[in-house]
Amino acid sequence: MKYYVSVLAGAMSYGILSTIVVLAYGEGYKLGEVVGTQLITGFILSWMLALYTRFNIKRKQNNAGKSPIAPAHVFQKLTWKQRLMLMAAGTPTVITGLVYYQSLRYIPASLAIILLFQFTWISVLIQAVSKRQRPNKVTLFTLVILFGGTLLAAGFLEQGLAEFNGLGIALGLMAAVSYSLFVLFSGKAVPSAHPAFRSAWMVTGGLVLLCILFPPTFLFNGLIWSQLLVFGLLLGFFGAFIPPVLFAIGVPHIGGDMAGILGAVELPVAVLLSAIVLHEHVSVLQWFGVIVVLLGVALPELHKLRVKRTSPSYS
């Protein structure tokens, strides 16, 4: 149960980000500054956790006379090949942040999160292609439900596509693809390593890529000591630190499919905050669409449980 709660809490943390980013844009900060402070904060917090974990392990080893007091992977020393693999697995978080946060300049936060949430069916599609397996009828039915729910939740049926910025919609969908890759890779990259070290190296990889794309000039011109620091701390904690750590703990144990389903909680959290904090209009029909999307995400897992319970071997 703790692994399910871990992934659930990580997804809820992601749901908070769009509101914080819109508030940061309102103060005049730029994309590179917002994402940069987020990742630097996440980098510091992640390595503090990793170093504390290493210290704690060594202390327990000394006290217990090196007795087996924890799973074997806790004591594993990562090779540079494994570290590079984890760093590469962390790069989708940067791509997701950049395109998702940029989309918020063109479309409402409530719409941006709905587009990002398309990672649910994109993840299914990626896994089907990688495994060379045609989706079954339940999966195809689920995709139809998700598509219909998205049209309702995004407000396309009420306002029409002409009312929305095409670039913003494209960026939101690009973020969904990148987020799908992160969810899948986070569970497959060196799963035997301790979650604290996995998360720290993944955040490190993301920070290296970001510094190449957007040199962190805000660290030297004094801008970091403005209100940007507050936004960076919030984004770093809820975006670059909490989700990777919790996903690193939970995804290897529950699988990418279930992680995608639990990630559904990100959608209502983000839409609710957009309505309350940013005062964005979310109609009753859009909320109905959100519910339809959530039901569509849960449908495959509910089908699996039904098949398992009706199976002759289930007793």
Automatic annotation (TrEMBL):
It is found in: Endomembrane system. The keyword Membrane applies. GO terms for cellular component: membrane. Keywords: Membrane, Transmembrane, Transmembrane helix. The chain crosses the membrane at residues 7-25, 31-52, 84-101, 107-126, 138-157, 169-187, 199-218, 224-247, 259-278, 284-302. The keyword Transmembrane applies. It comes from the Bacteria. It is a multi-pass membrane protein. Belongs to the EamA transporter family. This is Drug/metabolite transporter (DMT)-like permease. It comes from Paenibacillus amylolyticus.
